[in-house]
Design brief:
With about 425 residues, the protein is of the alpha/beta class. About 40% of the residues lie in helices and about 20% in strands.
């Protein structure tokens, strides 16, 4: 298979009708030689902030000289983003080679692996072939039964911010969701916990106690913001001063404090992470699609926020960085999201809404979202395509205005295409 044929095969693998559990993943890993057993991991679960936290850790470990794998999902522009080593994405040729290699193995199994399970297996083999010193591994969804949880005890199990998302699968309370995500905590490992509500912390603490895991709560009390602007933030953390971080928003400072706590845990286990590597890793980190400013005149911001907790963080960013400004929102979302709660808090900042349909079978139609948003008595423009939505939003905002695209990561690649079309 070539690259395009490989992606067609990967995306054609159905997940419908499968039984939750790690059985398929374990069977597939065994069939390909258990590459995951030849690697070391930092395993990250949570509702919001997994990707940013993973990107920071991978950047620091790379700066420290370790060959560092990074596995994330979903991708924004290209599939290859999901597997990186030292900031370099997997090549098209290697995607094709690995997919061609694994296809007959996966197809021969009696219970065919899901798309995510196949991709996870490809990633494990990719990192093994390149002899990564460590892999920063982002959970796809949940934790206990996620395909990434096929690994043995990681160097650190990291639990970031937990909120209500995928409730039909993970549970209808944050405590139930926390219990599922605590499934990545293995016997005797170290667990780093992002500071959050006491009931969630109690669930994670209980899981650690049951499994003899060492719990390390991220130190938010030592966090001090020095300055911030649209170009980035400068903060102190405990005995480290004037750390530069290009990622915007208060929540990114909390993610950074979690990352710094992980670095301390790793250092205590013998990993060599000099202060200059930590500083340069955070300063150089890149994580697109999170309050990312794409252009000026009008200012165009992309944010992948896709649940109420993400939109809360976005609202705080508006208050911090763009007070008293009105914004044209370019919105799309999945039909199974709580879009009522998602968009309500954007209304005080809104000049108008432009709705689009993200490229996903689960997407809510632009027309249906527009009908919902009309209740707020603001201009609402449903668009037939995302590219047309970009054009409409930019024209309505005007040269000195602001556009913010948010609601779903699945529409970002088409938004980028829309911006390029405007430039041309």
């Amino acid at each position: 298979m070539n690259y395009e044929e490989s992606l067609q095969y990967i995306h054609s693998v159905s997940w419908m009708g499968t039984v939750p559990g790690l059985g398929r993943t374990q069977e597939l890993m065994k069939a390909i030689g258990n590459p995951e057993k030849k690697l070391k991991f930092i395993h990250i679960a949570g509702t919001n902030g997994k990707g940013s936290t993973a990107a920071m850790l991978a950047s620091i470990l790379t700066e420290a000289g370790y060959r560092t794998g990074l596995y994330t999902s979903p991708y924004i522009l290209r599939f290859n983003e999901r597997m990186q080593i030292d900031h370099n994405q997997i090549s098209d040729d290697e995607v094709a080679e690995l997919a061609t290699w694994i296809r007959p193995i996966a197809d021969a199994l009696s219970d065919h692996p899901t798309e995510f399970e196949v991709v996870t297996a490809i990633a494990m083999e990719y990192f093994r072939r390149h002899q990564c010193d460590i892999v920063v591994l982002e959970v796809g969804m949940g934790g206990e039964f996620d395909a990434t949880n096929v690994i043995d005890a990681p160097e650190a199990a990291v639990i970031v911010n937990i909120g209500l998302d995928h409730m039909q699968i993970l549970g209808d309370t944050v405590e139930k969701i926390a219990a599922t995500k605590a499934g990545i905590i293995k016997d005797g490992c170290d667990c780093v916990l992002y500071a959050q509500q006491p009931s969630v912390e109690a669930v994670i603490a209980q899981a650690c106690e049951q499994r003899g895991a060492n719990l390390h709560r991220a130190g938010m009390e030592g966090l001090r913001l020095r300055s911030h602007g649209l170009e980035g933030q400068i903060f102190d953390w405990e005995n480290l001063s004037a750390i530069k971080l290009p990622l915007l928003g208060e929540h990114q400072l909390h993610n950074a404090a979690t990352v710094l706590t992980v670095c301390r845990v790793l250092a205590n286990k013998g990993w060599n992470l000099p202060e200059e590597s930590i500083r340069s890793g955070l300063e150089k980190v890149s994580w697109p699609g999170r309050f990312q400013i794409m252009r000026k005149d009008p200012m165009f911001i992309i944010d992948g926020g896709h649940n109420p907790q993400c939109l809360d963080a976005l609202v705080r960013a508006f208050q911090d960085y763009l007070p008293d400004r009105k914004i044209v929102f370019l919105n799309g979302c999945m039909a199974d999201k709580d879009y009522g709660d998602m968009f309500r808090d954007l209304v005080p900042f809104a000049q108008a809404f432009v709705t689009v349909t993200p490229d996903n079978p689960r997407a809510l139609s632009a027309k249906d979202l527009a009908e919902y948003l009309k209740r707020y008595n603001l201009p609402v423009f449903p668009s037939d395509t995302v590219v047309q939505g970009v054009k409409t939003a930019v024209e309505f905002a005007g040269k000195d205005g602001i556009v913010c695209a948010c609601g779903s990561l699945y529409m970002i690649s088409e938004i980028v295409a829309g911006l390029k079309a405007l430039e041309n």
